[in-house]
Amino acid sequence: MATSSTITSPKDETTLVSAVCLPMTALFRRYQQIKYEHLVAGIAGGVVSSTILHPLDTIRTRLAVNGSQLICAGVRRPHYGGLVDVLTSITRTDGLHGLYRGVSLGILTAGCTWGSYFFFYDALKAELQRDDPTKLLGPAQHMMAAAEAGVVTLVLTNPIWVIKTRLCLQFGEGSHYLSEQKRYKGIMDALVKTYRYEGFRGLYRGFLPGFFGVSHSAIQFMVYEEMKSRYNNHRNMSIDSRMSTLTYLSFAAMSKMVAVTATYPYQLMRTRMQDQYLQCNGAIDVLTRTWKHEGVRGFYKGMLPTLLRVTPATAITFVVYEHVSHSLIQNSAVASNSLVTDERDDDTLSSAPVTPAVL
């Protein structure tokens, strides 16, 4: 194949960035109650948890596509017997570096996803609460806010998840069976090649299962918010009162376990649809063939490492988010009050009568 066909052109990058970024202006106008603190805190939580637990995400991704009957003809992918087998196989073939393949993209993905999610979720909550953080919302309102935030986040971040999945699944000798179009050297190379050869459809592979998977976030946030509200009511405190780190950890872990158990099959389908080694004709094709060849068990492949990763990851993310957001909001309030006090002092001085100087 001619090398010229795989060279990244500035025009491709400019077109891709423009197509993704231009709708953002209209999107932000939808939300009136915007606070940057939630964006920063969400990014911080996602980055910290992804940095610590990325190896488990790599293992989970490999197991999710393990043994699939949708694999392209001629591709010999390693077969794994379980969690320990994946771990030893990756370290034997690629060393410890293999467990951290795509870690920079994992950090970027987690930061963008959690930052975006908390940003829009809290903006919607503020809108429902009429900017009164002490106003109690019901389960349905929490689910509605979480679902809308999930849809917006999915639209913005699905391309990043596609690239992350493909880089995680690009393994050793198996990559030689792929055409140059699907062999990636890094994040930008994967992004541009996917867009060039597959268009926006390639960047939004797995979007349909992801869309249905918005229910995952809705369930998780509803359970989490309800537990926080009930706990603070039990303590006779405001619903936005700060809690202990252990309480945040417990509530985040329990809500995540409930959500994962209820919605894991969609995550598996989404991962398989984003896999460059598989040949499929959409979500229905993946669903029927997975059922035919692997049965119910096939829809829950990789759930154990998923629980092992996402439960502590979510707990870490939420703890970092809660503490960072509370600190930022508190600091902003102090700075705002200080500014108001300074302005009042200036007004008082300017309105005071001028006393003639004593000669």
**Inertia-based shape:** globular
CATH architecture: Alpha/alpha barrel
Tell me the β content.
under 5%
Distance between the termini: 94 Å
What average pLDDT do the residues reach?
78
Please tell me the total number of domains.
1
Largest sheet: none
Could you tell me the radius of gyration in angstroms? 24 Å
Classification by helices and strands = mainly alpha
Number of helices: 13
Q: Give helix and strand order, one letter per element, not per position.
A: HHHHHHHHHHHHH
Question: How many beta strands in the DSSP annotation?
Answer: 0
Q: Which homologous superfamily in CATH is the superfamily?
A: Mitochondrial carrier domain
Uncertain parts:
1-8, 354-359
